[in-house]
Amino acid sequence: MEYNGRKFKLDLHPDNSDGFGGDGAVRNFTWKLSGEKTEPLSGDYGGVVEFNHTVGEFEVIEDREIVWTFTPVGPMIDGSAGQVLTRKSANGNDLRDVPMGRYKVTATYEGKALKLKKWRTQDAFGTDVTFDFYPTFESFCNNCAILEYKIK
Fold it and tell me: Rg of the chain over CA atoms, in angstroms?
């Protein structure tokens, strides 16, 4: 699927994930923007947003307590309108299963806005950042986006 000038490979959701057997099989597939994949696939249909504390800032915060708000900017990858999402990270490193689209994101910690920018860019930090997902980012992250944050 092409979206915002990039080509993505996306898994489709089968109505039945059983094997085909000797006589073959009929399967109907649907496109899901989020949700857990059925076996034998693993993971989620949505993208991953990773985040990193900026290098050189030494104020320590609990990453699991950051509140992230994603506001769609334009249609999602499937053409739908999308919804505003507010989430915290379960593992403190990333947010998984985010429906793929373009978003303006903000983040707060203990009620105070964090400064954000796209990872490994010369962009200035701001109270929000608009980002797209990448099909492959630096060969280690598929269908993801990486953000950097700082407190001050």
Answer: 17
